[in-house]
Amino acid sequence: MKNWWRRFKKWLALPNSDKWLLLQATAAILLIKLGLKLLSFKTFKTVYAHCIANPAAKNYPTSYIQQLVWSISAVSSALPLSILCLPQALAVKFFLRGDDCFVLKIGVANPVQQFSAHAWVEKEGKIVIGDVPNVSYVPLWDWN
């Protein structure tokens, strides 16, 4: 119970803009997670593509991108659900939908012991969210 009280006290200390971003991130993560669970991947892709289609062109400041990544990561670790890399990457891509430079990538790694897949978002070759140190993933698909 102390853990929740500590989180609540941290929440109260946050500026209103951070609280709002955390609420938006929570809603986006939960809707994406629900969509991935309940819909076929083909249907989810269609719905998601519709949600991010035709945004006004934007250039996001670095501070906003950092706050967004912080909020998505914080929400993903605080929720009692398993929020893995794909919902996190999809949420970041959703919030940054006005800038076509952000690319969601899905790749695979085949270490000697175990096959693994991963999703991340890049801008101009730099990873925005989903960096995994010491593992090299080969991109299979770019989701624009």
Automatic annotation (TrEMBL):
Domain called Microcin J25-processing protein McjB C-terminal: residue spans: 30-140
Residue runs in coiled coils: none
Domain of life of the organism encoding this protein: Bacteria
TM stretches of this protein: 20-39, 68-87
Keyword annotations from UniProtKB, A to Z: Membrane, Transmembrane, Transmembrane helix
Pfam family, any one: Transglut_core3
Protein name per Swiss-Prot or TrEMBL: Lasso peptide biosynthesis B2 protein
